[in-house]
């Protein structure tokens, strides 16, 4: 069985860009369930000879600054089957209340899964410094990445693949 890696985070942090970056052109979507209640896309991936499934999630909209119950439930449902969860945040937008709540939720509900913490959109040294504040989430090891230019993504994937 190929391990399933899920990308999770609030809208606009760069999950879909990261999904495409990791898969490059080589993979096809193997399961797509678009929609408001259960939006997820799963594709076959390969890295350093290891095969895995990668899941992009989305489709929720937090209307207010409070994380919506629907978003939480939808996220939980989509990633229930995942072996590894990559929690994606945005260094340019900074850590929001939604990020913190989602982070807590992931830690609470998925103690049996491997959790990785990605701080995306880090393309300059200045942003790396700002991203250091993300360590306060309690996720001990942040990966500072850019889904757009690819920096840091290979190192994170190496560590993810070490776990299986
Ligand atoms: P999603 O809603 O989490 O799937 O986010 P998307 O992948 O759709 O990206 C949201 C926006 O952020 C788009 O305009 C992307 O081009 C931009 N974006 C994604 N990754 C990066 C990155 O690493 N650096 C920068 N600067 N922008 C990014
Ligand atoms: Mg998306």
From TrEMBL:
Amino-acid positions noted as binding GTP 1 in the UniProt annotation, renumbered to this chain: 9-16, 56-60, 120-123
Positions spanned in the full protein: 1 to 164 of 437
The name this protein goes by in its record: GTPase Der
Subunit-structure text: Associates with the 50S ribosomal subunit.
Stated role: GTPase that plays an essential role in the late steps of ribosome biogenesis.
Similarity remark: Belongs to the TRAFAC class TrmE-Era-EngA-EngB-Septin-like GTPase superfamily. EngA (Der) GTPase family.
Organism: Chlorobium ferrooxidans DSM 13031
Residues in EngA-type G domain copies: 3-164
């Amino acid at each position: 069985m190929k391990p399933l890696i899920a990308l999770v985070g609030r809208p606009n942090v760069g999950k879909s860009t990261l999904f495409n970056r990791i898969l490059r052109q080589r993979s096809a979507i193997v399961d797509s369930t678009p929609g408001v209640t259960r939006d997820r896309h799963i594709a076959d991936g390969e890295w350093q000879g290891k095969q895995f499934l990668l899941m992009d999630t989305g489709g929720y909209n937090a209307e207010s600054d409070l994380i919506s119950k629907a978003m939480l439930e939808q996220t939980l449902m989509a990633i229930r089957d995942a072996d590894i969860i990559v929690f994606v945040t945005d260094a340019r937008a900074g850590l929001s209340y939604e990020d913190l709540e989602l982070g807590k939720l992931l830690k609470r509900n998925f103690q049996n899964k491997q959790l990785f913490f990605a701080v995306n959109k880090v393309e300059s040294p200045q942003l790396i410094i700002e991203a250091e504040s993300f360590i306060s989430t309690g996720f001990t090891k942040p990966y500072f990445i850019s889904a757009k230019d690819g920096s840091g993504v290979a190192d994170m994937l190496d560590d993810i693949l070490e776990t299986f």
